[in-house]
Automatic annotation (TrEMBL):
Protein's UniProt name: Nitroreductase family protein
Domain of life from the UniProt record: Bacteria
Protein source organism: Actinokineospora terrae
GO MF: oxidoreductase activity
Amino acid sequence: MSTTVSTVHAAITAAVRAPSPFNTQPWLFAAHPDRVDLWLDRSRVMTVTDPDAHEARVGCGAALHTLRLALAVSGHRTEVHMLPDRARPDLLATAVLDGKYRPTPHERALSEAVWRRHTNRRPFLDRPVPSPAKTALMRAATVEGAQLHLMDQPAEVGAVADLVRRADHVLGQDLAHVDEVRAWIGHQGRSDGIPVTASGRPSTPDTLIVLRELGSSAPAVPFERLPLLGVLTTVGDTHSDHLAAGQALQAVLLEACVAGLAVSPLSQPIEVPATRDALGLLVGAAAHLVLRIGYGHPGVTTPRRPVSEVVLD
Ligand SMILES: Cc1cc2nc3c(=O)[nH]c(=O)nc-3n(C[C@H](O)[C@H](O)[C@H](O)COP(=O)(O)O)c2cc1C
C-alpha cells in the first residue's frame, strides 16, 4: 500500500467508530488517490423510525468529522465539499486531500478519544459539570456550524424531559417502529446494532429522563436527579444542516471524552414530528438530538463492520 492509500484506509477505520442511530452504520466510502467520497447507505436507513434519513445523515456527518480528524492527525489538510452533486443527493460529501497539515496536541488527543468514546447509558453521578468543560462543548459545536444549547436548570431540563417522555410513549405505541428497532438491538456476535452489553439498565419510575428501552432484562436502577442536557441544533434544517449537526455531534462527543465526561444521545423527541417541533420552539432552532451529559462509570464500546464492507470498489 502506498502512504496515501494506507493513510486513507486508516482514516476510514477511524471514521466508522462514529456514532450512528442504533449502530446502523449507514455509510459507504469511495477511496480515491486524492480524495474520499462519503455516501449514504440507503439500505441501512431505518425507514419507519427515520423516514427522511435525517438521523442517518447526522451519523454520516459524525463519520465525516472523524475522517477529517484522522486525516489531519496523519498530516493531511482536507477541503470538504458538502453535497457536491445535485443529481446524486446520497453523495453526502467529498474530502479532498489538499496538502500538508500540522496537527495540534489537542487534535491528537481528540483523535485518540475516537477509540474509547462510547455511548454511556448507565446512571451518571450527581456531580456538576464545571463551566470550562461546558464552554469547550459549546465551542466544539459552534466550530462545526451548529449550536449546543446546554440546560441544567430544573424548569428547562424538566421541559425537555417531558418531550422525551411524550415521544417515547408515542413511539412505544407504534408497532412498526417497535418491530424495526427490535431488528437492531439485543444481538450478540454481530458487527452492527446495539448489543445487550451496551443496552444500559432500565431506570426506576422516579427518573426524570426516559432512556430508550433497549431490551435489558437487568433490574431498574435510579438515575441522576438532574442531568445536564444539551440540545444540538442548527439554524436551518436542510440536508447540509443535518451533516453539520453530525459533524458537531462527534466534535462534542470527542471533546466530552477528553474531558472525562460520559454522554448518551436521546433521539425519541426527534422521531415524533410534534415533539421535534416543540423542542425546536423551546430552543429557537432546528433540533437534531438531545444529549445527556455527566460524569459516570465507563460503559462499553460496540462493534463495527470491517472497512472492507464499507468501501466501494
Ligand atoms: C442520530 C443519533 C441518534 C441516536 N439516538 C439514540 C437514542 O435515542 N438512544 C440511545 O441510547 N442512543 C442513541 N444514539 C447512540 C447510538 O445508539 C450509538 O451511537 C450506536 O449504538 C453506536 O454506539 P457507540 O456510540 O457506543 O459507538 C444515537 C446516535 C445517533 C448518531
